[in-house]
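2024-03-11 09:14:02 INFO worker-7 job=invfold-0412 stage=load source=structure_tokens
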């Protein structure tokens, strides 16, 4: 029998201190509880204990053996999380989220479904590539899979940015650049491909001199400029490697990056058109490229709030020196961060990448913003079906640092082994999460106070304490009832051992929580009556077989209770 339940809410708690009564309770067969500031009438939940004070630490919720299915009510549980729960139990559920870049290799409905089944939480569309019609088709396929087959995959578009030069050899797959081969980089536009010829953006060669080094995708291949022919560059390959379609270009002189496009706006005219497209298609996230200050992030967020009926989250990509210099203000202004290690590695020494990654991840946790570790996680799988051991170690290190999400780029977009790459991320992250838990490697987090108002500070402290309780008492899961996802994210920030099931009636919140570590968002009808919410969701989860006799659950809410 599922027996006790307790609730923690940030509402009205400022009137009383939170206390916990009867600490000697045997929680093995109970669902634990915090309640403060008001009393609950739990008669409808068949409570076995009496309400003795305003602070109620144990509510007996003896749910009888009834198997009735609540008429018309549905638990918005995505099929992948539900299957994982049934197979592995609460503690076996993966907590690190997976982002996959969609490209020509995985854009069919069948391939997208395979990625979703493999654990893709967010589908990323890089607006540098393909047409808007192509992106529109992919977005509608993803939404169709969500609606018709029970997935919960969010959609992210990634802006190109004005401070970028892109080159394209015209071939849909990668091309090997051999040592000493001669290539022409040209701004001339032509259809298809030409041997040893690469199309570049207009003005790409301005200020470039003979002897400068041209670097592809942060070091995938390198060339020396041997001749300027008008606006074109003739170059010799000095460091052979893979040349991907629509690759990024940078120039170096005497060991230093050649500064270019200084003063250009963060978002180009094309970016704004892509953002309008994203609004019209109802995307969930917009990732901003080459962010250099917080003002550009705030400007986009204000624009989205005035133009979009739904809440679209803005992620700032950290990929240049300016963004590192203003990191904290950018993190505070954004809804999340992407560590674009490929581009970042062009501007800072390679040996600094690991420590910079860990620093960014830590700051994001402190400021309660999700962080994605991206670029070259499994780069060898663009060509080969198995990763290098070093790549697996790199993935595991990002998981050990408690990054919210890991991202595939070319591995899924153009590589032939997208499903295998997702499987590697899933298995490596699950194994490292288990090791962290078994070794009791709970990452100590400096608890920077985020809330300014008393209710916000109370909510923050409730979540901090709830995670300590959940870990110490060994509860199986945390249930949080939330409108905008705030308390779910505060719980996630503390990286609890049990999974966090976030019940919300807002679809934008559900999709946004798809990027939060350890949070399984569920779309379900909620009311201001917390008693009814708890009763309904417990019945639904019981009917679905999610909770079993002996399971213990900690319940937290940021919904206003009925008085």
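2024-03-11 09:14:09 INFO worker-7 stage=emit residues=563
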């Amino acid at each position: 029998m599922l027996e006790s339940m307790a609730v923690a809410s940030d509402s009205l708690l400022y009137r009383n201190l939170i206390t916990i009564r009867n600490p000697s309770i045997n929680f093995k067969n109970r669902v634990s509880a915090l309640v403060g500031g008001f009393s609950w009438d739990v008669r409808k939940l068949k409570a076995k204990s009496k309400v003795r004070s305003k602070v109620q630490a144990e509510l007996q919720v003896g749910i009888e053996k009834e198997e009735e299915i609540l008429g018309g009510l549905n638990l918005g549980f995505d099929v992948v999380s539900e299957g994982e729960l049934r197979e592995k139990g609460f503690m076996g559920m993966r907590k690190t989220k997976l982002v996959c870049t969609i490209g020509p290799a995985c854009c069919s409905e069948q391939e997208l479904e395979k990625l979703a089944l493999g654990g893709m939480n967010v589908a990323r569309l890089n607006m540098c590539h393909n047409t808007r019609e192509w992106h529109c088709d992919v977005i509608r396929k993803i939404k169709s899979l969500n609606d018709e087959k029970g997935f919960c995959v969010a959609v992210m578009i990634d802006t190109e940015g004005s401070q970028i030069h892109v080159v394209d050899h015209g071939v849909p797959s990668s091309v090997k650049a051999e040592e000493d081969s001669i290539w022409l980089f040209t701004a001339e536009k032509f259809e298809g491909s030409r041997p040893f010829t690469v199309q570049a953006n207009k003005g790409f060669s301005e200020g470039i001199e003979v002897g400068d080094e041209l670097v592809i995708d942060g070091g995938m291949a390198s060339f020396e400029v041997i001749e300027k022919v008008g606006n074109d560059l003739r170059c010799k390959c000095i460091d052979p490697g893979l040349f991907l379609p629509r690759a990024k270009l940078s120039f170096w002189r005497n060991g230093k990056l050649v500064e270019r496009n200084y003063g250009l706006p963060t978002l180009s005219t094309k970016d704004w058109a892509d953002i309008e497209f994203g609004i019209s298609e109802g995307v969930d996230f917009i990732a901003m490229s080459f962010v250099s200050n917080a003002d550009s992030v705030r400007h986009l967020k204000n624009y989205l709030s005035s133009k979009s009926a739904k809440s679209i989250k803005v992620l700032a990509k950290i990929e240049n020196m300016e963004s590192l210099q203003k990191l904290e203000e950018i993190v505070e202004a954004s809804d999340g961060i992407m560590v674009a290690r490929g581009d970042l590695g062009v501007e800072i020494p390679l040996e600094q990448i690991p420590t910079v990654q860990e620093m960014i991840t830590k700051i994001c946790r402190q400021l309660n913003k999700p962080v994605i570790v991206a670029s070259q996680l499994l780069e060898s799988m663009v060509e080969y079906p198995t990763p290098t051991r070093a790549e697996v170690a790199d993935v595991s290190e990002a998981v050990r640092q408690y990054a919210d999400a890991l991202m595939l780029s070319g591995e899924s977009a153009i590589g032939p082994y997208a499903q295998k790459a997702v499987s590697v991320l899933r298995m490596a992250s699950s194994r490292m999460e288990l090791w962290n838990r078994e070794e009791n490697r709970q990452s100590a987090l400096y608890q920077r106070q985020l809330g300014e108002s008393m209710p916000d500070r109370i909510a923050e402290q409730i979540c901090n304490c709830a995670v300590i309780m959940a870990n110490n008492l060994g509860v199986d899961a945390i249930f949080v009832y939330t409108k905008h996802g705030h308390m779910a994210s505060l719980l996630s920030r503390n990286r609890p051992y049990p999974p966090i099931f976030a019940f919300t009636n807002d679809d934008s919140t559900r999709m946004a929580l798809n990027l939060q570590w350890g949070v399984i968002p569920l779309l379900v009808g909620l009311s201001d009556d917390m008693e009814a919410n708890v009763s309904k969701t417990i019945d639904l989860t019981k009917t679905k077989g999610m909770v079993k006799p002996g399971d213990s659950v900690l319940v937290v809410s940021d919904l206003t209770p009925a008085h």
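2024-03-11 09:14:09 INFO worker-7 stage=report msg="The two ends are 29 Å apart (CA to CA)."
2024-03-11 09:14:10 INFO worker-7 job finished
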